[in-house]
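We store amino acids, tokens; thus:
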Amino acid sequence: MINDIQFALKELQTTDMSASLFFLLREQREEIKYSVLRTRIVNEIAMEFKDIFIETLEKICHEPDLEFMEYEPLFMAVNSVIETIPIDMIPYCREIIAEMDAPYLLDYPVKIDEDFIHKLWAYGVKLSDGNNSYYYFRKYWRRNVLQSGGRLRFFFDKGTFSRLESDVFSFDGKIDSIVLGSNMLILQKNLFEQIFRYLEHYKKIADDILESLRQSDMIYGFQELAGACESDFRKMKKLAGISNNIDLSALSFDDLRDVARDFRLELKFDERTRKIFIEKKQEVWTFLKLIGDDLLKSPLTRNKYEAQYKKRYR
């Protein structure tokens, strides 16, 4: 991955790549819908967006002991680790990039009104020389738009305040995620997840996992489990992580019981009914850690560990 970043950086520094700015608008009716709008920007602004990208890539290249890892929902982001994920696995991403690649089919913003600002969700920048293209995304906040025509909205020039005649958009020069080839580099995990609506994505996965657990008929107090998970984003992310790494159909009552006993988990296993009892909210996390294979024993020291993030040894 670092070679791809260095190649992109060199190309940006040595070729005449142009920058295009796009707004991402989001509507939520029966289902989420994204709209991509193109913009007209002068060359000076385009160069600033390009410089932001170059500075970000330079910072990545100069980060000591940098590591790359596959995106893991529950991994706590740290500066020395960049998570990556194929763009085909990101909700809506492939469609958004396809629209950015065909700007002649897109509309321009017509009116900066309350409806537009309410839907404005993020922005994307595409850099291209006609052969290679790179993209980056940043979450956008309505507070960064200052509309003209409102009361007590002025600009300052040469010691004088005058009424604001045009709408003002402010950009902070930060990047949340970068597309290089077929992969996304995640720089600001929480904002990346907001841009691409991972809450809804995780909820769908969580619902599927919960349905599998319900059908297993192994849990007494399933509604307690389902209710706790459906109202907690972290638990939904945990279920998504379990979905990526664990084959639930391979988990037996006996295996789960034996691990729970070995680690002295406060979960009740009823031998007669072959059910795991979940009757309290605090038991939900304990159960998720159990089926998530978070409880490990070192073959070297025989010490026991709880590990929410694990990298499979191949």
